[in-house]
TrEMBL record:
<dbReference type="Pfam" id="PF00588">
    <property type="entry name" value="SpoU_methylase"/>
</dbReference>
<feature type="domain" description="tRNA/rRNA methyltransferase SpoU type">
    <location>
        <begin position="6"/>
        <end position="156"/>
    </location>
</feature>
<keyword id="KW-0489">Methyltransferase</keyword>
<dbReference type="GO" id="GO:0160206">
    <property type="term" value="F:tRNA (cytidine(32)/uridine(32)-2'-O)-methyltransferase activity"/>
</dbReference>
<dbReference type="InterPro" id="IPR001537">
    <property type="entry name" value="SpoU_MeTrfase"/>
</dbReference>
<comment type="similarity">
    <text>Belongs to the class IV-like SAM-binding methyltransferase superfamily. RNA methyltransferase TrmH family.</text>
</comment>
<keyword id="KW-0963">Cytoplasm</keyword>
<keyword id="KW-0808">Transferase</keyword>
<protein>
    <recommendedName>
        <fullName>tRNA (cytidine/uridine-2'-O-)-methyltransferase TrmJ</fullName>
        <ecNumber>2.1.1.200</ecNumber>
    </recommendedName>
</protein>
<dbReference type="GO" id="GO:0003723">
    <property type="term" value="F:RNA binding"/>
</dbReference>
<dbReference type="GO" id="GO:0106339">
    <property type="term" value="F:tRNA (cytidine(32)-2'-O)-methyltransferase activity"/>
</dbReference>
<comment type="function">
    <text>Catalyzes the formation of 2'O-methylated cytidine (Cm32) or 2'O-methylated uridine (Um32) at position 32 in tRNA.</text>
</comment>
<keyword id="KW-0819">tRNA processing</keyword>
<dbReference type="GO" id="GO:0002128">
    <property type="term" value="P:tRNA nucleoside ribose methylation"/>
</dbReference>
<dbReference type="InterPro" id="IPR029028">
    <property type="entry name" value="Alpha/beta_knot_MTases"/>
</dbReference>
<dbReference type="InterPro" id="IPR029026">
    <property type="entry name" value="tRNA_m1G_MTases_N"/>
</dbReference>
<dbReference type="InterPro" id="IPR004384">
    <property type="entry name" value="RNA_MeTrfase_TrmJ/LasT"/>
</dbReference>
């Protein structure tokens, strides 16, 4: 599953520096496809300067005349907006946007994240070409982010959703590479053996008086029950009990370095 199926579309950008900043934000988050609709000043050294090394994104940027051309092949179009519009529209926050984008590319779709002009945003007509509107929940008294900053926020959320989706197999891989003993939980019968061993040891060291048990064992069961002990951890605990018994009985005991 690749982030190449998500394109960032910048509509009618006036400052080339913002195009560079957006390219940098994209490359940081693993997005590669930039589409520029009728940019006012591009290519430009200001874009290269702000891209700060993400010039490959600028070099491969597609320049088109209309939003319609920028959206060819997209099955999901999301339009970003700094303020509420008159016609209510299905609205997503950036986190939901990440999830929706990932669902779409998992199904083999193509996604466009559309950003508007620095001074006027997207027109109502442009916003109506989008299935969803995305609003970054900024302070209503100062709601408009810099264009490249808005690209950064959404690119980050897309990346987080992508990492979460890719984490599932990697967790499985981790399970396979680490010792199974270290991850497998102990069974109820193994725990029962342990409690028997613990009780016996506590009696031997004089911590537990069988005549006056003071609910010690149920409390310890409750404590261990909360811990989700692995088989390896259980072996360590049993080893400690065995060595404790040897010590209290005056038997020779093993040093860990032996
Ligand atoms: N004066 C414009 C602000 C445009 S800011 C307006 O009122 O709409 C330039 C672009 O950055 C916006 O078109 C949008 O794509 C993005 N942007 C800025 N702030 C945003 C926010 N709070 N939520 C979503 N997108 C935002």
């Amino acid at each position: 599953m690749s982030l190449q199926s998500i394109r960032v579309v910048l509509v009618n950008t006036s400052h080339a520096g913002n195009i560079g900043g957006a390219a940098r934000a994209m490359k940081n988050m693993g997005l590669t496809r930039l589409v520029l609709v009728d940019p006012e000043d591009f290519p430009s050294p200001n874009a290269v300067a702000r891209a700060s090394g993400a010039t490959d994104i600028l070099d491969s940027a597609e320049i088109v005349a209309t939003l319609e051309e920028a959206l060819v092949g997209c099955s999901l179009v999301l339009g970003t907006s700094a303020r509420d519009r008159r016609i209510p529209w299905p609205l997503l926050d950036p986190r939901e946007t990440g999830t929706v984008c990932l669902e779409q590319i998992e199904r083999g779709g193509e996604v466009a994240l559309v950003f508007g002009r620095e001074y006027a945003g997207l027109t109502n007509e442009e916003l109506q070409r989008c299935q969803y509107h995305v609003h970054i929940p900024s302070d209503p008294d100062f709601s408009s982010l810099n264009l490249a900053a808005a690209v950064q926020v959404l690119a980050y959320e897309v990346r987080m959703a992508w990492l979460a989706a890719n984490d599932k197999p990697s967790k499985q891989e981790k399970l396979e590479t680490t010792s199974m003993l270290d991850t497998q939980p102990v069974t109820a019968d193994e725990l029962e053996h342990y409690y028997g061993h613990l009780e016996q040891t506590l009696v031997e060291i004089g911590f537990l008086d069988p005549q006056k048990p003071r609910h010690l064992m149920p409390r310890l069961r409750r404590l261990y029950g909360r811990s989700g002990i692995s088989k390896l951890e259980m072996n360590i605990l049993r080893g400690i009990l065995t060595e404790t018994q040897k010590a209290v009985r005056g038997e020779p005991h093993k040093r860990r370095s032996d």
